[in-house]
């Protein structure tokens, strides 16, 4: 960075806002100096053996390279994979579950569904709490919230003793109908705290007070399972930032695409399990709105996985039931589909001689063979190097240099087993990776009922631009929009995210004029909870309260979420609520029953506190053909062709060129197939269009 700029910022009092996202291979930084509008970005290899150490490394590099001053950091937002990795690797806390006597098998039974109904070989995952650590307590609450049997505290005492003897670090308390009345759970929690103060305790009703005991119990279990590691990580994070003299209160990205402070994250751990993937979609939504893109399919490829999401009307889509490893998450979250195919995904030949890609990943350590960090097995990144698309500049802001010889050696081992040339083997790896993504995206489009030909693909992450254009071509999409810094879009998401808290109450009542007072009272209670939550986060401006209800026709087993207007409750307008439900049902299932009786199950409220207003500079487009830096040989699938290589730094708004081509920059490499028209827009996005 120019020294004069740094000196001027220091003199005028810089205002740094920093977004950080940790992935499986890299930690990404996006730092905005708000007064000048200057954006700095960086990628640093992760340190799985010491999570959080890479954060200090990155902040130090930002200070050295960009003049970043942590004492002038007024906003720090952090997305982390500590929680989800704890679940995937099954390295969480040993837990005990206290439930009603006679209901000890609720976690084993779950919903009696197979993970994949089309597979004869799939199986349900082993629960996070083994059956011998589930304790039935004589206690019963009626469905109306009245007590039928008080908790047997003698049984609680015996259960605590056995749980501690078996190595439990925490207890999950989940009783029937606690969504209606949580007093029994609270009573047992107090007893456990008195008997064993060293055990942490979470009640299902305090984590997510929703009807259906399996969903409520499993959500509380996920929260407790990751609690010790997440809490320790966040405590260390706070201490590290404090040691730097940073005044910013550390904030965390949440699964719902919003933010919360780190202090809350220590006990509301389940809310941040999908923080990284959600951040990417929020960052992409912001970029889509800036560029005027109404319908976008996001493609976030890191070292371990590829994540897909839909942006419609410039907004991310939300849902429940997203998978955390092998387990469903029943709190609101940004709807993201994932598959275990990333840049570090390992290619192998199985016992039947079939080439496979993933889900095992080389991660950051040892990483792909071409990184020269000890990896010897072929990966998707190595295949890109062998084909010639990758390896023509330093990667990750100068932290990695590609060793093409090591990539050829790794791919060559597979080629020898398959009896095929090295380039053809590398191309086969890329084709398999793209085809596996194709299948997952088609599932997503079918569930959402959308035609992807109407959408623009936005690839980001370190690996998104490498494979994005090839996937778009296979899907029949006509446009690709790659942002200026695709490698740090998830970190950008943290910078632009709002505070967002989700609250729920189960009502379970027919929709009628007589039930409106109950619904109105629940909404007012949730609204106050939302305002109080925002105040606790340090937000003192106006709050946006979004209301929705889970509704169904009486007799249906499951409900749909319907967006409502608070004015309908205030005015007693049941007709408007009914019509909103019918319209939503028609949109989702292509039919509705105008005479059907409607039942309201849950009322939901989302309290949103707007984040800072950010904008990046725009430049008018001047049509000019781009001049390639040089030409290089690339294996494009059938033969080796000589293609243009462009440096992203030299591409200005209005620059145009044709594929096949390679575009290199500090955080990623773009592979652009033949027949593609490329143009840089006024936001410095790279737009690709395919011929009709």
UniProtKB/TrEMBL annotation:
Residues 17-193 form the Hydantoinase/oxoprolinase N-terminal domain. Residues 216-500 form the Hydantoinase A/oxoprolinase domain. Residues 518-683 form the Acetophenone carboxylase-like C-terminal domain. It comes from the Bacteria. This is Hydantoinase/oxoprolinase family protein. The lineage of its organism: Bacteria, Pseudomonadati, Pseudomonadota, Alphaproteobacteria, Hyphomicrobiales.
